[in-house]
Amino acid sequence: MISLVEVEETNKMIREMNLDVRTITMGISLMDCAHTDLKTFNQKIYDKITRSAEHLVKTGNDLEKQFGVPIVNKRISVTPIAIAAGSVETDTYVPVAEALDRAAREVGVNFIGGFSALVQKGCTTGDRKLIESIPEALAVTERVCSSVNVGSSRSGINMDAVKLMGDIIRRTALATQDRDSIGCAKLVVFCNAVEDNPFMAGAFHGVGERETVINVGVSGPGVVKRALEEVKGQDFETLCETVKRTAFKITRVGQLVAQEASRRLGVPFGIIDLSLAPTPLVGDSIAEIFQVMGLEEAGAPGTTAALAILNDNVKKGGVMASSYVGGLSGAFIPVSEDHGMIQAVQRGALTLEKLEAMTCVCSVGLDMIAIPGSTTKETISGIIADEAAIGMVNNKTTAVRLVPVIGKEVGEMVEFGGLLGYAPVMAVNRFDCSGFVNRGGRIPAPIHSFKN
Protein backbone atom coordinates (compact mmCIF):
# COMPACT_ATOMS: atom_id res chain seq x y z
CA MET A 1 0.00 0.00 0.00
CA ILE A 2 1.06 3.60 -0.65
CA SER A 3 0.74 5.72 2.50
CA LEU A 4 -0.63 9.26 2.86
CA VAL A 5 2.85 10.43 3.85
CA GLU A 6 4.19 9.16 0.53
CA VAL A 7 1.35 10.94 -1.27
CA GLU A 8 2.26 14.23 0.42
CA GLU A 9 5.93 13.77 -0.43
CA THR A 10 4.96 13.03 -4.00
CA ASN A 11 2.85 16.17 -4.26
CA LYS A 12 5.79 18.26 -3.08
CA MET A 13 8.08 16.66 -5.66
CA ILE A 14 5.55 17.38 -8.40
CA ARG A 15 4.92 21.00 -7.36
CA GLU A 16 8.49 22.05 -6.72
CA MET A 17 10.89 19.62 -8.41
CA ASN A 18 9.55 18.74 -11.90
CA LEU A 19 8.68 15.14 -11.02
CA ASP A 20 6.63 13.44 -13.69
CA VAL A 21 5.67 10.09 -15.13
CA ARG A 22 7.44 10.46 -18.44
CA THR A 23 5.47 7.77 -20.22
CA ILE A 24 2.88 5.04 -19.97
CA THR A 25 3.74 2.66 -22.79
CA MET A 26 1.48 -0.19 -23.83
CA GLY A 27 3.33 -3.08 -25.41
CA ILE A 28 1.29 -5.00 -28.00
CA SER A 29 2.24 -8.27 -29.67
CA LEU A 30 1.60 -8.39 -33.41
CA MET A 31 2.65 -12.01 -33.81
CA ASP A 32 -0.90 -13.15 -34.51
CA CYS A 33 -1.27 -10.58 -37.32
CA ALA A 34 1.07 -12.42 -39.68
CA HIS A 35 -0.18 -12.67 -43.26
CA THR A 36 1.35 -12.88 -46.73
CA ASP A 37 -0.83 -10.11 -48.15
CA LEU A 38 0.41 -6.60 -47.31
CA LYS A 39 -2.99 -4.95 -47.27
CA THR A 40 -4.43 -7.65 -45.01
CA PHE A 41 -1.46 -7.48 -42.65
CA ASN A 42 -1.73 -3.70 -42.37
CA GLN A 43 -5.43 -3.90 -41.61
CA LYS A 44 -4.85 -6.55 -38.96
CA ILE A 45 -2.17 -4.56 -37.15
CA TYR A 46 -4.24 -1.38 -37.36
CA ASP A 47 -7.27 -3.15 -35.91
CA LYS A 48 -5.30 -4.81 -33.11
CA ILE A 49 -3.48 -1.65 -32.06
CA THR A 50 -6.60 0.53 -32.08
CA ARG A 51 -8.58 -2.13 -30.22
CA SER A 52 -5.92 -2.82 -27.59
CA ALA A 53 -4.97 0.83 -26.95
CA GLU A 54 -8.42 2.34 -27.38
CA HIS A 55 -8.57 3.60 -23.78
CA LEU A 56 -4.86 4.16 -23.15
CA VAL A 57 -4.77 7.94 -23.53
CA LYS A 58 -8.03 8.51 -21.63
CA THR A 59 -6.83 6.30 -18.78
CA GLY A 60 -3.55 8.23 -18.60
CA ASN A 61 -5.41 11.54 -18.56
CA ASP A 62 -7.80 10.29 -15.85
CA LEU A 63 -4.90 9.11 -13.67
CA GLU A 64 -3.15 12.43 -14.13
CA LYS A 65 -6.22 14.26 -12.83
CA GLN A 66 -6.89 11.85 -10.00
CA PHE A 67 -3.36 11.67 -8.58
CA GLY A 68 -2.11 15.08 -9.68
CA VAL A 69 0.93 13.45 -11.26
CA PRO A 70 1.90 14.78 -14.70
CA ILE A 71 1.86 11.92 -17.21
CA VAL A 72 3.70 13.51 -20.09
CA ASN A 73 3.41 10.85 -22.79
CA LYS A 74 1.19 7.93 -23.69
CA ARG A 75 2.89 5.58 -26.14
CA ILE A 76 2.75 2.18 -27.80
CA SER A 77 5.44 -0.36 -28.58
CA VAL A 78 4.89 -3.32 -30.88
CA THR A 79 6.63 -6.51 -31.92
CA PRO A 80 9.62 -5.69 -34.15
CA ILE A 81 8.08 -5.27 -37.57
CA ALA A 82 10.88 -7.22 -39.25
CA ILE A 83 9.59 -10.24 -37.31
CA ALA A 84 5.84 -9.59 -37.38
CA ALA A 85 5.87 -8.79 -41.11
CA GLY A 86 8.37 -11.46 -42.07
CA SER A 87 5.91 -13.40 -44.22
CA VAL A 88 4.46 -10.38 -46.04
CA GLU A 89 5.08 -10.43 -49.78
CA THR A 90 6.39 -6.93 -50.43
CA ASP A 91 9.58 -5.14 -51.40
CA THR A 92 9.17 -2.37 -48.82
CA TYR A 93 7.71 -1.96 -45.33
CA VAL A 94 6.91 1.73 -45.77
CA PRO A 95 3.16 0.97 -46.03
CA VAL A 96 3.43 -0.90 -42.72
CA ALA A 97 4.96 2.20 -41.11
CA GLU A 98 2.09 4.25 -42.49
CA ALA A 99 -0.43 1.81 -40.98
CA LEU A 100 1.34 2.11 -37.60
CA ASP A 101 1.22 5.89 -37.91
CA ARG A 102 -2.51 5.87 -38.64
CA ALA A 103 -3.16 3.62 -35.66
CA ALA A 104 -1.08 5.84 -33.36
CA ARG A 105 -2.95 8.91 -34.55
CA GLU A 106 -6.32 7.19 -34.10
CA VAL A 107 -5.70 6.30 -30.43
CA GLY A 108 -3.96 9.61 -29.70
CA VAL A 109 -0.49 8.48 -28.61
CA ASN A 110 2.48 10.68 -29.45
CA PHE A 111 4.84 7.89 -30.55
CA ILE A 112 4.69 4.24 -31.56
CA GLY A 113 7.89 2.21 -31.43
CA GLY A 114 8.75 -1.08 -33.04
CA PHE A 115 9.63 -0.35 -36.65
CA SER A 116 12.62 -2.41 -35.67
CA ALA A 117 15.00 -5.22 -36.57
CA LEU A 118 17.25 -7.43 -34.45
CA VAL A 119 20.33 -8.20 -36.53
CA GLN A 120 23.11 -8.80 -34.00
CA LYS A 121 24.21 -11.99 -35.80
CA GLY A 122 22.89 -11.39 -39.30
CA CYS A 123 20.02 -10.15 -41.45
CA THR A 124 17.00 -12.11 -42.64
CA THR A 125 15.15 -11.03 -45.76
CA GLY A 126 12.61 -9.23 -43.56
CA ASP A 127 15.36 -7.48 -41.60
CA ARG A 128 16.93 -6.21 -44.79
CA LYS A 129 13.60 -4.96 -46.15
CA LEU A 130 12.84 -3.13 -42.93
CA ILE A 131 16.24 -1.45 -42.67
CA GLU A 132 16.12 -0.31 -46.28
CA SER A 133 12.63 1.11 -45.62
CA ILE A 134 13.68 3.26 -42.66
CA PRO A 135 14.61 6.54 -44.43
CA GLU A 136 11.34 6.80 -46.35
CA ALA A 137 9.26 5.42 -43.48
CA LEU A 138 10.51 8.06 -41.05
CA ALA A 139 10.09 10.77 -43.67
CA VAL A 140 6.43 10.04 -44.44
CA THR A 141 5.25 9.31 -40.88
CA GLU A 142 4.96 11.55 -37.85
CA ARG A 143 4.79 9.19 -34.86
CA VAL A 144 6.67 6.07 -35.89
CA CYS A 145 10.01 5.32 -34.18
CA SER A 146 12.61 2.88 -35.41
CA SER A 147 15.45 0.90 -33.86
CA VAL A 148 18.00 -1.65 -35.01
CA ASN A 149 20.01 -3.89 -32.69
CA VAL A 150 23.44 -4.53 -34.26
CA GLY A 151 25.26 -6.32 -31.45
CA SER A 152 25.11 -8.14 -28.13
CA SER A 153 27.47 -9.47 -25.50
CA ARG A 154 26.58 -13.04 -26.49
CA SER A 155 26.83 -12.73 -30.26
CA GLY A 156 29.31 -9.93 -30.93
CA ILE A 157 28.83 -7.05 -33.36
CA ASN A 158 27.39 -7.44 -36.85
CA MET A 159 29.70 -5.04 -38.69
CA ASP A 160 27.80 -5.48 -41.95
CA ALA A 161 24.77 -4.04 -40.15
CA VAL A 162 26.90 -1.30 -38.56
CA LYS A 163 28.15 -0.28 -42.00
CA LEU A 164 24.61 -0.32 -43.40
CA MET A 165 23.23 1.78 -40.52
CA GLY A 166 25.76 4.53 -41.19
CA ASP A 167 24.31 4.79 -44.68
CA ILE A 168 20.70 4.54 -43.42
CA ILE A 169 21.22 7.39 -40.96
CA ARG A 170 22.68 9.56 -43.73
CA ARG A 171 19.76 8.72 -46.02
CA THR A 172 17.24 9.43 -43.25
CA ALA A 173 18.88 12.81 -42.65
CA LEU A 174 18.61 13.63 -46.35
CA ALA A 175 15.01 12.42 -46.54
CA THR A 176 14.01 14.84 -43.75
CA GLN A 177 16.46 17.67 -44.44
CA ASP A 178 13.59 20.13 -44.84
CA ARG A 179 12.86 19.57 -41.11
CA ASP A 180 16.45 19.73 -39.83
CA SER A 181 16.86 15.98 -40.44
CA ILE A 182 14.44 15.18 -37.63
CA GLY A 183 13.87 11.65 -38.95
CA CYS A 184 17.18 10.68 -37.31
CA ALA A 185 15.78 11.75 -33.92
CA LYS A 186 13.35 8.82 -34.26
CA LEU A 187 16.03 6.25 -35.09
CA VAL A 188 18.23 4.39 -32.57
CA VAL A 189 21.01 1.86 -33.18
CA PHE A 190 21.46 -0.50 -30.20
CA CYS A 191 23.80 -3.04 -28.74
CA ASN A 192 22.12 -5.28 -26.15
CA ALA A 193 18.65 -3.82 -26.76
CA VAL A 194 16.11 -4.67 -24.05
CA GLU A 195 12.62 -5.99 -24.75
CA ASP A 196 10.69 -3.93 -22.18
CA ASN A 197 12.01 -0.38 -22.68
CA PRO A 198 9.11 2.14 -22.49
CA PHE A 199 11.17 5.09 -23.74
CA MET A 200 11.31 6.26 -27.32
CA ALA A 201 12.77 6.11 -29.82
CA GLY A 202 14.07 2.64 -28.91
CA ALA A 203 10.96 0.94 -27.55
CA PHE A 204 9.71 -2.33 -29.01
CA HIS A 205 7.64 -5.19 -27.61
CA GLY A 206 9.95 -8.17 -27.28
CA VAL A 207 9.01 -11.64 -28.46
CA GLY A 208 9.37 -12.92 -24.88
CA GLU A 209 6.72 -10.52 -23.60
CA ARG A 210 3.01 -11.11 -22.92
CA GLU A 211 0.25 -10.40 -25.42
CA THR A 212 -0.16 -6.88 -24.03
CA VAL A 213 1.58 -5.18 -21.14
CA ILE A 214 1.85 -1.81 -19.40
CA ASN A 215 5.34 -0.40 -18.83
CA VAL A 216 5.87 2.92 -17.09
CA GLY A 217 8.86 5.24 -17.28
CA VAL A 218 9.37 7.67 -14.40
CA SER A 219 11.75 10.60 -14.49
CA GLY A 220 12.94 13.02 -11.82
CA PRO A 221 16.28 14.78 -12.34
CA GLY A 222 14.88 17.85 -10.59
CA VAL A 223 13.97 15.81 -7.52
CA VAL A 224 17.46 14.31 -7.29
CA LYS A 225 19.04 17.74 -7.76
CA ARG A 226 16.96 19.26 -4.93
CA ALA A 227 17.80 16.35 -2.60
CA LEU A 228 21.52 16.70 -3.31
CA GLU A 229 21.41 20.44 -2.68
CA GLU A 230 20.45 19.63 0.90
CA VAL A 231 23.65 17.57 1.41
CA LYS A 232 25.99 19.77 -0.64
CA GLY A 233 29.64 19.37 0.38
CA GLN A 234 29.08 16.20 2.40
CA ASP A 235 30.97 12.95 1.76
CA PHE A 236 30.32 10.39 -0.98
CA GLU A 237 28.54 7.96 1.31
CA THR A 238 25.98 10.63 2.17
CA LEU A 239 25.67 11.56 -1.51
CA CYS A 240 25.03 7.94 -2.52
CA GLU A 241 22.49 7.35 0.25
CA THR A 242 20.63 10.51 -0.73
CA VAL A 243 20.37 9.42 -4.37
CA LYS A 244 19.15 5.95 -3.33
CA ARG A 245 16.47 7.30 -1.00
CA THR A 246 15.28 9.77 -3.61
CA ALA A 247 15.18 7.12 -6.34
CA PHE A 248 13.08 4.94 -4.07
CA LYS A 249 10.49 7.70 -3.64
CA ILE A 250 10.38 8.47 -7.35
CA THR A 251 9.91 4.80 -8.24
CA ARG A 252 7.00 4.49 -5.80
CA VAL A 253 5.16 7.09 -7.86
CA GLY A 254 5.65 4.97 -10.97
CA GLN A 255 4.48 1.86 -9.13
CA LEU A 256 1.27 3.58 -8.10
CA VAL A 257 0.51 4.82 -11.61
CA ALA A 258 1.47 1.52 -13.25
CA GLN A 259 -0.67 -0.60 -10.96
CA GLU A 260 -3.70 1.61 -11.39
CA ALA A 261 -3.27 1.88 -15.16
CA SER A 262 -2.93 -1.90 -15.35
CA ARG A 263 -6.11 -2.40 -13.33
CA ARG A 264 -8.21 0.06 -15.30
CA LEU A 265 -7.05 -1.15 -18.71
CA GLY A 266 -7.19 -4.84 -17.80
CA VAL A 267 -3.62 -5.22 -19.07
CA PRO A 268 -0.85 -6.89 -17.01
CA PHE A 269 1.74 -4.65 -15.35
CA GLY A 270 5.18 -5.11 -16.86
CA ILE A 271 7.98 -2.98 -15.43
CA ILE A 272 8.88 0.39 -14.01
CA ASP A 273 11.76 2.04 -15.82
CA LEU A 274 13.35 4.56 -13.48
CA SER A 275 15.46 6.61 -15.85
CA LEU A 276 16.52 10.13 -14.98
CA ALA A 277 15.52 11.49 -18.38
CA PRO A 278 16.01 15.26 -18.60
CA THR A 279 13.96 17.85 -20.45
CA PRO A 280 14.98 21.22 -21.91
CA LEU A 281 13.48 22.92 -18.82
CA VAL A 282 15.78 24.63 -16.34
CA GLY A 283 15.85 22.55 -13.15
CA ASP A 284 15.25 19.25 -14.96
CA SER A 285 18.82 18.54 -16.04
CA ILE A 286 21.37 15.77 -15.45
CA ALA A 287 24.13 18.32 -16.02
CA GLU A 288 22.76 20.45 -13.17
CA ILE A 289 23.04 17.41 -10.88
CA PHE A 290 26.74 17.21 -11.76
CA GLN A 291 27.10 20.85 -10.80
CA VAL A 292 25.47 20.24 -7.43
CA MET A 293 27.91 17.35 -6.96
CA GLY A 294 30.77 19.83 -7.31
CA LEU A 295 31.64 20.03 -11.02
CA GLU A 296 31.79 23.40 -12.75
CA GLU A 297 30.28 21.95 -15.93
CA ALA A 298 29.33 18.58 -17.34
CA GLY A 299 32.46 17.33 -19.04
CA ALA A 300 34.88 18.55 -16.38
CA PRO A 301 37.30 15.97 -14.93
CA GLY A 302 35.27 13.77 -12.60
CA THR A 303 32.13 13.79 -14.76
CA THR A 304 32.29 10.08 -15.61
CA ALA A 305 32.72 9.22 -11.92
CA ALA A 306 29.78 11.46 -10.99
CA LEU A 307 27.62 9.78 -13.62
CA ALA A 308 28.64 6.33 -12.36
CA ILE A 309 27.56 7.29 -8.85
CA LEU A 310 24.25 8.63 -10.09
CA ASN A 311 23.47 5.69 -12.35
CA ASP A 312 24.35 2.99 -9.81
CA ASN A 313 22.47 4.51 -6.89
CA VAL A 314 19.39 5.27 -8.97
CA LYS A 315 19.23 1.54 -9.74
CA LYS A 316 19.88 0.51 -6.14
CA GLY A 317 17.15 2.76 -4.80
CA GLY A 318 14.63 2.04 -7.53
CA VAL A 319 14.88 -1.74 -7.42
CA MET A 320 13.63 -1.78 -3.82
CA ALA A 321 10.55 0.29 -4.58
CA SER A 322 8.80 -1.80 -7.23
CA SER A 323 7.92 -5.42 -7.77
CA TYR A 324 9.48 -5.22 -11.26
CA VAL A 325 12.13 -2.69 -12.27
CA GLY A 326 13.32 -3.09 -15.85
CA GLY A 327 13.79 -1.26 -19.11
CA LEU A 328 16.96 0.82 -19.06
CA SER A 329 16.70 2.35 -15.55
CA GLY A 330 19.48 4.76 -14.70
CA ALA A 331 20.56 8.15 -16.05
CA PHE A 332 20.18 9.36 -19.63
CA ILE A 333 22.60 11.89 -21.09
CA PRO A 334 20.93 13.24 -24.26
CA VAL A 335 22.40 16.54 -25.37
CA SER A 336 19.44 18.21 -27.05
CA GLU A 337 17.02 17.31 -24.25
CA ASP A 338 19.13 18.75 -21.40
CA HIS A 339 19.76 22.49 -21.25
CA GLY A 340 22.74 21.98 -18.92
CA MET A 341 24.40 19.62 -21.40
CA ILE A 342 23.76 22.10 -24.20
CA GLN A 343 25.40 24.83 -22.14
CA ALA A 344 28.40 22.58 -21.47
CA VAL A 345 28.83 21.95 -25.21
CA GLN A 346 28.59 25.65 -25.97
CA ARG A 347 31.22 26.48 -23.32
CA GLY A 348 33.61 23.85 -24.69
CA ALA A 349 33.45 21.64 -21.59
CA LEU A 350 31.77 18.69 -23.30
CA THR A 351 32.95 16.94 -26.46
CA LEU A 352 31.77 13.87 -28.34
CA GLU A 353 34.78 11.93 -27.00
CA LYS A 354 33.90 12.80 -23.39
CA LEU A 355 30.30 11.79 -24.01
CA GLU A 356 31.54 8.44 -25.32
CA ALA A 357 33.53 7.92 -22.11
CA MET A 358 30.43 8.74 -20.08
CA THR A 359 28.40 6.13 -21.94
CA CYS A 360 30.49 3.43 -20.28
CA VAL A 361 28.56 4.09 -17.06
CA CYS A 362 25.21 5.62 -18.13
CA SER A 363 21.93 3.95 -19.04
CA VAL A 364 22.13 4.19 -22.81
CA GLY A 365 24.71 5.94 -24.97
CA LEU A 366 25.29 8.75 -27.45
CA ASP A 367 21.81 10.19 -27.45
CA MET A 368 20.24 13.05 -29.42
CA ILE A 369 23.51 14.53 -30.63
CA ALA A 370 23.47 16.88 -33.61
CA ILE A 371 26.52 16.52 -35.85
CA PRO A 372 27.51 18.25 -39.10
CA GLY A 373 25.41 17.35 -42.11
CA SER A 374 28.60 16.73 -44.04
CA THR A 375 29.61 13.83 -41.76
CA THR A 376 30.29 10.74 -43.88
CA LYS A 377 28.39 7.50 -43.54
CA GLU A 378 31.67 5.74 -42.67
CA THR A 379 32.29 8.10 -39.76
CA ILE A 380 28.76 7.49 -38.47
CA SER A 381 29.35 3.73 -38.73
CA GLY A 382 32.63 4.10 -36.87
CA ILE A 383 30.88 5.92 -34.02
CA ILE A 384 28.22 3.18 -33.90
CA ALA A 385 30.96 0.51 -33.79
CA ASP A 386 32.71 2.24 -30.89
CA GLU A 387 29.52 2.51 -28.90
CA ALA A 388 28.49 -1.09 -29.65
CA ALA A 389 31.92 -2.26 -28.47
CA ILE A 390 31.39 -0.51 -25.14
CA GLY A 391 28.05 -2.27 -24.74
CA MET A 392 29.32 -5.67 -25.87
CA VAL A 393 32.40 -5.77 -23.64
CA ASN A 394 30.69 -4.30 -20.58
CA ASN A 395 27.50 -6.37 -20.96
CA LYS A 396 25.27 -3.29 -20.94
CA THR A 397 22.85 -1.58 -23.28
CA THR A 398 24.39 1.13 -25.42
CA ALA A 399 22.85 3.09 -28.24
CA VAL A 400 23.52 5.76 -30.82
CA ARG A 401 21.01 8.42 -31.84
CA LEU A 402 22.93 10.84 -34.02
CA VAL A 403 21.34 13.57 -36.12
CA PRO A 404 23.53 14.68 -39.04
CA VAL A 405 21.75 17.95 -39.77
CA ILE A 406 21.97 18.53 -43.49
CA GLY A 407 23.16 22.05 -44.28
CA LYS A 408 24.50 22.84 -40.82
CA GLU A 409 28.02 22.75 -39.45
CA VAL A 410 29.78 22.87 -36.08
CA GLY A 411 28.49 25.54 -33.72
CA GLU A 412 25.18 26.19 -35.48
CA MET A 413 21.98 25.54 -33.54
CA VAL A 414 19.15 23.21 -34.52
CA GLU A 415 15.63 23.26 -33.07
CA PHE A 416 13.80 19.92 -32.86
CA GLY A 417 10.87 21.06 -30.72
CA GLY A 418 9.01 19.62 -27.74
CA LEU A 419 10.82 17.10 -25.56
CA LEU A 420 13.41 16.65 -28.32
CA GLY A 421 14.65 20.15 -27.51
CA TYR A 422 17.41 21.99 -29.35
CA ALA A 423 21.13 21.45 -29.76
CA PRO A 424 24.39 22.90 -30.97
CA VAL A 425 26.01 20.94 -33.80
CA MET A 426 29.00 19.10 -32.29
CA ALA A 427 32.32 18.38 -33.94
CA VAL A 428 33.25 14.84 -34.92
CA ASN A 429 36.73 13.41 -35.42
CA ARG A 430 37.81 14.34 -38.96
CA PHE A 431 40.11 11.34 -39.56
CA ASP A 432 38.97 8.54 -41.86
CA CYS A 433 37.83 5.10 -40.63
CA SER A 434 36.44 3.70 -43.89
CA GLY A 435 39.13 1.03 -44.21
CA PHE A 436 38.05 -0.39 -40.87
CA VAL A 437 34.29 -0.10 -41.40
CA ASN A 438 34.40 -1.64 -44.87
CA ARG A 439 36.06 -4.90 -43.74
CA GLY A 440 32.65 -6.55 -43.28
CA GLY A 441 31.74 -9.60 -41.25
CA ARG A 442 31.18 -9.90 -37.53
CA ILE A 443 33.29 -8.99 -34.50
CA PRO A 444 33.15 -12.06 -32.23
CA ALA A 445 31.72 -11.90 -28.71
CA PRO A 446 34.24 -11.29 -25.90
CA ILE A 447 35.61 -14.32 -24.02
CA HIS A 448 33.71 -13.50 -20.84
CA SER A 449 30.40 -13.93 -22.71
CA PHE A 450 30.73 -17.73 -22.37
CA LYS A 451 29.01 -18.26 -19.04
CA ASN A 452 27.21 -21.59 -19.49
UniProtKB/TrEMBL annotation:
| CDD domains in UniProt | RNR_PFL_like_DUF711
SUPFAM superfamilies tied to this protein: PFL-like glycyl radical enzymes
Coiled-coil segments on the chain, per record: none
Q: Which residues cross the membrane?
A: none
Q: Which Pfam families would you find in this protein's record?
A: DUF711
What assembly does the database describe for this protein? Homodimer.
Q: Which family does it belong to?
A: Belongs to the UPF0210 family.
List the HAMAP family hit by this protein, alphabetically: UPF0210
* Protein name per its UniProtKB record: UPF0210 protein F4V43_05015
Q: Which organism is this entry from?
A: Paenibacillus spiritus
Highest classification ranks of the organism: Bacteria, Bacillati, Bacillota, Bacilli, Bacillales
